Every structure is written in structure tokens, then in C-alpha cells.
Amino acid sequence: MDYVYGPGRNHLFVPGPVNIPEPVIRAMNRNNEDYRSPAVPALTKTLLEDVKKIFKTTTATPFLIPTTGTGAWESALTNTLSPGDRIVSFLIGQFSLLWIDQQQRLGFNVDVVESEWGQGANLDILASKLAADTAHTIKAVCIVHNETATGVTNNLAKVRRILDDYSHPALFLVDGVSSICALDFRMDEWGVDVALTGSQKALSLPTGMGIVCAGPKALEATKTAKSVRVFFDWNDYLKFYKLGTYWPYTPSIQLLYGLRTALDLIFEEGLDNVIARHSRLGKATRLAVEAWGLKNCTQKEEWFSDTVTAVVVPPYIDSSEIVRRGWKRYNLSLGLGLNKVAGKVFRIGHLGNLNELQLLGCLAGVEMILKDVGYPVKLGSGVAAACAYLQNNTPLIPSRI
Amino acid sequence: MDYVYGPGRNHLFVPGPVNIPEPVIRAMNRNNEDYRSPAVPALTKTLLEDVKKIFKTTTATPFLIPTTGTGAWESALTNTLSPGDRIVSFLIGQFSLLWIDQQQRLGFNVDVVESEWGQGANLDILASKLAADTAHTIKAVCIVHNETATGVTNNLAKVRRILDDYSHPALFLVDGVSSICALDFRMDEWGVDVALTGSQKALSLPTGMGIVCAGPKALEATKTAKSVRVFFDWNDYLKFYKLGTYWPYTPSIQLLYGLRTALDLIFEEGLDNVIARHSRLGKATRLAVEAWGLKNCTQKEEWFSDTVTAVVVPPYIDSSEIVRRGWKRYNLSLGLGLNKVAGKVFRIGHLGNLNELQLLGCLAGVEMILKDVGYPVKLGSGVAAACAYLQNNTPLIPSRI
Amino acid sequence: MDYVYGPGRNHLFVPGPVNIPEPVIRAMNRNNEDYRSPAVPALTKTLLEDVKKIFKTTTATPFLIPTTGTGAWESALTNTLSPGDRIVSFLIGQFSLLWIDQQQRLGFNVDVVESEWGQGANLDILASKLAADTAHTIKAVCIVHNETATGVTNNLAKVRRILDDYSHPALFLVDGVSSICALDFRMDEWGVDVALTGSQKALSLPTGMGIVCAGPKALEATKTAKSVRVFFDWNDYLKFYKLGTYWPYTPSIQLLYGLRTALDLIFEEGLDNVIARHSRLGKATRLAVEAWGLKNCTQKEEWFSDTVTAVVVPPYIDSSEIVRRGWKRYNLSLGLGLNKVAGKVFRIGHLGNLNELQLLGCLAGVEMILKDVGYPVKLGSGVAAACAYLQNNTPLIPSRI
Amino acid sequence: MDYVYGPGRNHLFVPGPVNIPEPVIRAMNRNNEDYRSPAVPALTKTLLEDVKKIFKTTTATPFLIPTTGTGAWESALTNTLSPGDRIVSFLIGQFSLLWIDQQQRLGFNVDVVESEWGQGANLDILASKLAADTAHTIKAVCIVHNETATGVTNNLAKVRRILDDYSHPALFLVDGVSSICALDFRMDEWGVDVALTGSQKALSLPTGMGIVCAGPKALEATKTAKSVRVFFDWNDYLKFYKLGTYWPYTPSIQLLYGLRTALDLIFEEGLDNVIARHSRLGKATRLAVEAWGLKNCTQKEEWFSDTVTAVVVPPYIDSSEIVRRGWKRYNLSLGLGLNKVAGKVFRIGHLGNLNELQLLGCLAGVEMILKDVGYPVKLGSGVAAACAYLQNNTPLIPSRI
Question: Does D165 touch chain A (CB under 8 A)?
Fold first, then answer.
């Protein structure tokens, strides 16, 4: 029973879960193992060491939690904060909305800074709030690096600068779900206290592993954080780290081997090359959108995301119909518009293990769908724009030179 | 890089994670998919319907949570109870201990009923506590069906009887991690309010899915339960069940397809045949232990477990050395003794997708190891005892008659 | 060690081996089995029955030989002919050339009918030869249905007509390696005596199985055919067919299960839909080539192949450089020009398990490569032409309506 | 559709095809690739270099032919001999019989030296034939190193000695199908001119690759050998070896990667350790047979095979019933008795990627089956005998020390 089967490959362009590279699929194609044998801790040790590299941190402590991004969020909050704590959080799209909802339900006092969907976090308001907060009642600043619903990338370096400007001690918590390992992210340089991602995003693994890095200040905060936590408690992990057995409960053997291979592939390509590739594919997508005469949901270039592009459709078209036709006619999986932008945007995910020709196939598909639904696109126009850019910017595959 | 490799198969006899059947490994050998396409909800719908069958319930609501058994525990508690609630919980081994630890850290008032490790839950004490509790201050009775550390199976039907005897309204919460789908378990008949298991146990999948069934009384209890919860909140699932999209956050596509195949295999063999097979393998193991002149950690036959046997070694032997040699010399993975019984017992897991000859290979291996570590076993004795029983009781494979 | 790895998928557009569908990869992901158990013959029986459907024959006997197309050729010849036998064979490209070389080395008296590369078989010469051969010295007419080197499809119905016109009893032997299961092929209707293909072509399996169908007249011919043969002897198979064990020597278990799934997928899509899909993709490719201002190596429309297009490059470009750059820069695998057309053509294979968007990604890639090597292509032009056609002709995926 | 499925693993103890190690299954779990890209020749080059090591040759040229053992036989004969050539061949069981049948059908003048099934090749007769053949009419001596039907290993070193004693120039052709990479085999030291094996035997791959090594004298012989050959012609390979593209026709990409991993695993374990492991498992099996009171089909210890044991059953038992029950009741695949020994022997294959506990599970199964069919075996007796030996002789797994 294969629910998804049609002739040829499924073209997976949702912004997660993303395409898994063949070597990773292979690595995960295995029986279970005893996680208390000497082999699994030995493997885990390499993973914990290497996963820090994709966060660009040498000082933080990583946790590989059997959960999703939502669980990773929860671990970041409950390990560092206490109910009633005041936190500043930016609402700029569906995923920041969901995180704020979680923050509120976990009992924090959330100071929501809202922007229009399609804009980045309003950092001027952050500055004024921090300026006013001489009593340091703000315990944490929570921000989604890349809002997957609108394709908006926030400026984290600037958040750090503002915190520093006011010498504010608030923790800096970052959702890097659709950014880490695809966009420029520098945990140590930007003084991020907790950063997290999910296995099914830029790491190009199946869903099921929340990857959280906690800096020294965040670990210190766990000592006073009164939020109730057991499954997500970092201290349970730390206890087993000391023992060298690493796991407070059973990990997914398959995901461990998968992560090993995923990291190997990333390091083989070079993390900076991976990020540059995302930049190229993002740019090519935006050029195609422009050529189609459509608008990016993201309102300013400074916020353009290199991992997902939300495309605004004309009012006479239902963007959900675009996604539906992609699925039914071309075996193309695009992202729906969510919540406020439902029906108004569709999304092209261009993150993870992807290359130029895969993207161009997707763009050609979008052109045909646009025509299908009555938008007067000039067929080939977006592909041409993307090709013109890519043909000048795509490097040779290093291992094949 | 294959940390676990040696010539031939690894003989996996820890009581979880267990051997994955080849058809399930195949089913999971796939790329990611868009979980918002029509295919994934269609698949999920069949899973939610069919997973109830292995709990023997028609009235409960299942949740397939991307977590481990520990997370499934947490969801059972936080969705139905409020901090400060009095609960009765039985401490009979390492896993009941860990659950009680969780219960305490989640802020419940835990009335611990302790037994010697190797004994079952003391249900007489339960009876007296319920008798005394005319005010119904006990909000829940929490019990581990099968204590994986000692190989003790508790009598759930009797728990139900006692609750009924006193017409006590306490919720009946069951950890079925190493029992459901392997031992006789009847959620509806026994009036269990919440039952849970993990994918890597009798279902023979990789780790990563906590499977929880909540009966009507448990769902009712969620309305007043004040425990803080977001990731584990059943209501977030129920909202998406109503929409027919099923997932509040991203599921593991691979585990969904894996579960589909796992259930298909179980139904093809017949759930009762699966349970009978576990009974046969459990009995054969105990006969071997007896033939070796060793003692079962479980003190009475009524508690003998058909999914795991903890074998007591003589005081002059360190049971950890047995596990170590199994790994190093025979590619055999046995379970360590944990906590109070560390060094004193080793464990043979005989659950999940397993057959007679696999077990006999393991038993032969244990005999050689026992000799390796200086125990005067008669080689072949345990295998002979097991064979004598199995040769008379193993049915033909139905699909091959 | 993964020699072929680069970021993203490899875009495989050689005319074989072709892309394997995920369900087939899954089906082949398995341990060996005893081929003398009851299971393998039961499986084989279904394969022999079903494989006839893709040849459109009910009267022929199929052989699944552990070999390549070259071996399948050899089996067709040695089982039906004797050294010295006169045969007519058409030389129109590299693969017909290789078959003729084999025919000569096997000791037949080959009457070669040569055409310019890029033209189809000269059937007028066939007619005159048959007309002259009143003594019936011609024992067989050998023809490649689809010459993979030049993208030329021969008219088999016409070959049959000519044979019938002269009531000539020569055997009609067809190489259907790059046609069967992709192009219109009718073994019974066209009176083909032996037809053959290879697993790695339209069936979209790994290499390793030569699939040969022998009609009643061909089987009759085996009785007098004196060519030396053992490994390729059909009679060894027929002996085991009678016994119901089917295999004179060990088959590949993996390929058997793979073929089962491949056939299931083809029947699920519908053989006629599969052929129609190839026709669409072939037409789209040719429209792109035209838009680029390049010439099809195939000189007339009647010979255009729906499984492979050989594109002629201008004299100032080395077509091998196009293939090299596809590999090195875009992870695109195109077919080289072979022998007489080496350096002059490159080939786009569009056969097997493939869909529209995969092809469009390839075409976009070719456009960039053409620009890379200095050909003044208008970027997007070929994709636009292909899209314009496909957008009007691609049906919904039946299973998703 | 899984024809072979039953609960737990299938216990595969036929003497081929044998169990594939998980890392090899993983390595083969992949899409097709263009075999004309730079990657496949680079991979092939390492394979051709490394495969010679398992033949213990530095001077021979290897061919990886897409065929089975039967095809490998054919290539050995047709490349080196001419029709009518006199060859000496030993008939000692079903596989030597089949090879002789092939030799005769290929037109050679076969001087058959027959022994009772269960005995080795009669080398005294060879000596007398060579002594008499002062005219050197004998062009080749053909011998099966290990007769898989009876479990007889011939003494190749002695064959060489006899050839040398008479300074006879006959080619020395060896079928090493069930020996190479499992038994002591030394191509160069023993002056073997052609040796061959199949991928599905000790190399533990799927069926589909015939591996043939031809020494300098054999390559020289190709120049005068008049046997008709095309598909099996080594010269077609040699032509492509020179070009560095290696393949005269399409290889199985999956088998190439599989072979790479298989060789890596063998070298990691150490070829001598692999051979020692086969020796241990063979010895343990024979000790079990003895303990059961049954006879080895092989009549003398000097011929005992370390890769397969044919066990003679009492006259009142049909050995086929033993194989049938193994399959139907215990998911155990044993080898049937073939031809002259059909019904009289069953065979336990103990070759390929296998370890002690797998074998012991099989032996326990055989004991139960023997009891099932009415043989008065003492349950546990064979396992005890095997364990007693193995417990004293099994080394630690080197990578785990």
C-alpha cells in the first residue's frame, strides 16, 4: 500500500519534511540495536561533538531529543524559565504564533510584539522595551529565526546588538527550525543562549529528533527554572552524559545512524557551501516569482528567506487550488498558505538536500499550474530567469572536478 | 561506519528495542512526504482505527505521539491529573521506579506501594487503601503491566476487580510498554482508562512513537486536569482529528508506514497467535533457566513474564560480565541488570518479531557464556529443555500449510 | 563510499539504466531466500504469467534469464538458428551494429541492410530480398525496434506486412530493449517470433534480467537449431517449467521481487497509460529541441522515438563536453554520442519511471549546459515549449482524482 | 506480497544463496546510475583489484560477469578450449555432473572420472591418465573444489602436484563456487589457470555476478580457443579494460556497490579469519551430526567440507520431509538431497556471512525436526556437542575487544 505513488518521483517542495539524501536513507535501513551496548554511546559521542558545528558553537551543550520542533521549543522554555516569567516574543507568522501559544500555555507572561505577516520582527520595539526594562523583568527574548509561514528571516545579529546596547541579561532563545544548517547562523558569535532545530528540516532526515543547543548561561538558568519538566529535562541527559551512556531513555537507532551520515554529507560538501547553495536556490526562486509577475509575501529584501518563499497569488485565485493541482496533476508537493494567509499564498520550500535541476523542475511545474488555474503566466519565464542566474553562479560539484 | 558490525547477524535479545521484521524495514525505506497531502491523513485514519485492536478497545481514543515511552507516560499523567492529586503507584522494579520519579516531579502526591524486586504489585495494600479512601482522594491508580527490569507481570484484571469492589472512581492508568501486543491485555474488559506502549517494543518498530489510548473517562478528565502540557496535550490532537488532518505537528512519515506494515503483519499472524507465540517463547526460556539450575528473578509463577526473563546469577558471578561477553564474543545482546539488581541478574528479552530458532540460538549462546564466566552449566541442557517443550507446542506457520 | 554523491538527487537521463521507482527499491531491499522453497516458484509463476502482458502476447513463452540485453540477444539467436543460417539484419546505429557483430561471431551468414545513422531500417530492401528469396534461404529477420543510439523507432507492423506479402517463413526476431513496456509493441498481432528486453530499461529495475518471449514458431525452431548453447538454452528452462520449480540455476531473489512490484506498478498505472506517458515525454523533449534550434538526429518524424532523443550539436561543439558538464556541474546524467555520432550528438533518455517535472528539470539543465559550452540558446525556450505542450496534455494522476 | 514471511527471521541454511550482511543490503539499496559516468569505472577499478585478493592471485585477470555460476563455468570453458578438445573431469555429485553435462554439450571430449557420491575426486586415476598422455592430448583438467551436493572438498594442491609430476601442460580449471572466500584457496600457489565463483555464495551477495579469474596461461589459450562465444567472451572485457571504461555491456550498479561493501567487510574481518570461521562452523556442524548418531554423506575426513554438510538419514525417513518441515514449522531453510541422494540426505549450508549462534539455532531446529519425523534423537545432544567445541574455539570479535 503506497498512498503517495504516481509515475516518477514525488517532487517534494514543502518547507519540511524535506528530501532525504539516498545515503541517509541507506544508513537508516537497519534493524534495531541495543542502545546500552558500547557501540551506541560511541556513535552518540561523535554526534554530540559534530552537531555543534552546524550551530557554530563550541561552548554550548547539545541535546538530541526524541521529539519534534514543538517539543524542542518546549524544552528550550521549560528548562530555562519559571511560570510567570516575562518574555518578549515576536508574532510574524503561523509558527511564531504557535510558539507564543505554547509560551502562554506554559504559564509565561508573554509580551507579544506583533508585525504584519510578511514583515520581520519589529526590533525597534524590542529596543524600546529593553530600554524601559531597567529592572530586568524581561527574562528572555524569543525569536523565530526564519518564519516558515511567510518566508521571513529575522536579523539575529541585530537582536544581539540591541541586547548588548542595553546590557540586558535576558536569555536569547532562537527557533532555528527552518534556518540552522541552511542559513547563516552563528550561535556563539551572536550570543544565542538556546537554539534548536528539527531533524526533518535542513538536516534532511525523517522527523523525530529535536536538536537543541544550550549555552552556558542557559544551563545556569536551569538551576533556578521552576517550570515543570521531566521528559524534556536537560538534567536527565546531563546525568547520562557524565556516565558516558548518554541516553535517559531509548533513542531511535535509525535516526542516530541517519544523523551521522547527514553530518558527514554536510561536512563533505562544506557547511559554508551548503549555506551558499541555499542562497543560490533562494535567489533563483525569487527571480522566477518576479518573472511571473507575482509578489513575494515577504515585504522587504532584508527579510527574504533562502529556505522558503511564500508567493502571493492574485485575489481571484485560491492558492490552495494551486497546491491541490500540484499534487493531483504533477506529483508536486507545495506548501499551503496557513492561517492569515490561507488561500492567499502558496509556498515553495527550497531547503535541505536539493539541487538546481530539482528546483527548476518545480518552477516549471508551478508555471503550468499557474496557467491551469487561470493566471496569465508566460510559460518558461520563471525558469528562464532562474536559469540565467544559476547558469552564472552554479559551481562545479567539488568531488567531481 | 558501522559500529555494530561483526560476522553474521547481531542476536538482539534485550527487551527493547527489539528486532524489526524485514517487511517493516522495507516499508520504512523511503523519502519524506508532505504530511499535509491527502495521502498521509488517509493512512493515519487506518492506523488510528487499527491500533485500537491491539489494545482490545473500541471505546478509547488513540494518540500516536512522536516520543518515547517516557513521553507517553507523561502524556497519560498530565492530561488526566492536576498537581497535588493523590495517586497510588506500585514500585516493583526500575521502570516503575522511573515512572514514580516522573509522577513526583510532575507534582503529584504519590502513594508508593513498594514490593521486593522480583515480586508483583501488592494488591492487598491497594485494596486496603481504596477501602480507607471513602472520600475518594485517590485520583488514579498507576501500574506497570510488565516490569521490564525484573520480568514481573502484574494482574490487571485483579486491579480492576478491587477498584470495582470498592466502587472507587480512581482512574486506572497502565504502562503497557513491554506488554501490549505481546501479553494478554484487554483495555475495555478491564476498564483501563489510559494505556500506553512504545513503538520499539512488541510492535517491533524503531523507537520514536508513543502509542497512547485514552478511554472516555480519561478524556473527560482532561477537562479538569490542570497539569501544564502543550507538546503532550491530547486536545491539540483532538482538534486536528476533527479537521481530518490529524497532526498538530509533523509526524515521522517513515514510522507511519512502518506501523501500517507492523499492524498488517500482526493481523496476518493473528493477535491471539502473536500472544500465544510469546507465551511459548517465555515458557521455553524459563524451562532453559531451570535446566541451567538458575533462578528466575520473579519469585512466583503467577508473575512470570512472557516478554522478558530476568535470570539470577550466583553471587560469585557479575551478571554484567555475562552481557559483556555476549556482546564481545557471540554478537549476542542481552539485557543488563538495572539498579538494585545490577550485577545480580541478566535479562533475556523474548518479545516482538521473534521465532523459536532465534530464541534457541540465544539460549545456546547463554550456555556458552555461562561456561565462559565459570558457571558449571551442562552445555545443551537449557536448549534441550526448551526444545522438548517447543517441539511439542510449535504450530505450523499458518501461511505455509 | 559513495562515488556518485553530490547535493540533491542525481538526474538520470541516460537511456538506461533508468530510474527505479521507490516501491521497487523497497521491494528489493531484502535478504536472500532459498529458491527451492515453495515461495519462489509461486512468485515466479505469477511473473511468467504477467510478463507476457507487457509483450502483448498470450501465446509466447517467457524466459527470465540472469543476464543483460546482450545475453538476451544471444539466447534469441542460438535457440532458433544454426551456424551458417542466412539472416537479414538492419544496421542503423550502435546497438544494431553490436547485435550484427554478435550474429557474425555466432557464425550466421548475416545479410546486413545498412542505413545512414539517423534513419530507420530500409524495409524496401527487405521486401526485395524476400521477394528474391523464393528458396527461403533467409531463416530470420532481425531488427532493433528502437535504436537507442540514434533515437530511431522502426516500424515493426510493416516488417510483418512485408513478410506476409511474400508469405515468407523467416523468423521475426526483435530487440525490444529500449521499447517494450514504453512504446507500442504487439508481439502476437505483429507475429513476432522472439522479442526481448532488459530489466534496466522501461521496466525500471536494476540490470541483470534478460526477458525473452518466444512464440510457438520459435520454440519449434529450437528443435532443429544447432547453435551451441547451454547457459542460454531455453530447453533447460522448459524442463524446470514442467516440474513447477522453474529455475535451472539460481535466480536473483531480489530481481524477482523487484519485477513483481514493477509489474504491479505498471498495471496499476495501466500499460496503455504508461505508453501514453512516454509519448507525451518524447513529444515534449522534441519540442524543446526544436525551440533550442537544434536538430534531432532522427531524420524523419515517422522514426521519432518516444524513449530517447539524440540531439545533434553544431560542429563547433563537442557533444561529449555537454555530457561531461552535465555530470560535473548539474548532477545530470545524459547519454553520450556513440561510435559514428560520438562528439556529434548527446542523448536524452526519457524512458522508464519518469514524470513531467523530472523531464523539465533535465531540459532546464540542458539549456544551461548549452549556454555553458557556447551555444546561443535562449534560456527557458525549450522548457517553455515543453510546458506549453504538457500543460495541455498531462492528465491528472488517476489514483489522486 | 511477501511470499516468505512468517514471524521472526527466516533461518537460511541452504548452501546458497546465503545470508546477505545488513551493510551489503544497505549498500545495494539505491537507484540506478549511468555506468558511463566517471564514478562507475572508478568503483570498478577498485573491485577488480580487490577481488583478486580473495582468489589469492596477483597474476590473474578478473572478470565480473552478469551471470550465474553456470554462466561462469561456460565462460571458463569457451574462452580457453576448442570443440573436440579432450578434458578430464571428475563426477562426484550433482554440481560436477551438471558441469560435465555442460562440457559435453559445448562439444568437448570429456574423459569422466567418476567416484561414488560422498567420495572426493579420484586423483589416482588422474595420475594414470596424465602418465599415459605423453602426447598431451588432455587440454584441461576440470574440477569442482567443493561439491555442494555431497559436502566433499577436493584436494587442489594435490591436483597441482600430479600435473607437475608429469609436467603436463593441461589447463587447470576450478569451480570454486562454494569454496572461494570460505575455504583455503590459493590460485597462484596451486597454479590454477581459471577459477570462478558466484556472488551468492561465500561473498554473501544476491545472485547475478559470476566472478572469474583467468591466469596468464588461460589468457594465452583464448587466442587459439575456437569455442563460439560472444556474451561470455573475455576479450570484449579486455578491450574495455584498456579503455578504462571496463564494461562491454551494462553491469548491475547495485551489485557493484554490494561487492564493494562485501569485500570491505571481508578484509575488515580478515580473509584468514573468514576461512577460520568457516572451519569452526563446519567442525561444529559435524560434531552435532555425530552426536545425533547420523552419518556424514562425505566418507572420509580428508574430504569434509567446511561450507556444507550433507547428512544421511536412516532409510525409514525421507530427507525431503525434513526440509519441508523445517520450512513449514520452524522457518528454517535446509538444502534438499539432489539426484542420486534425493530423499537420502539433507544439507546444512554453513557458508557466507554467518556466526555461531545462527548455526546453533539451526542445529536446535534440526533436532526438533528429526524428532518430528520419528528419528530418536536426544534433544540438545547436537547443540551440546557443537557448543562444547565452539565455547573453546570462538575468538572475541576483534572490533569489540
Answer: no
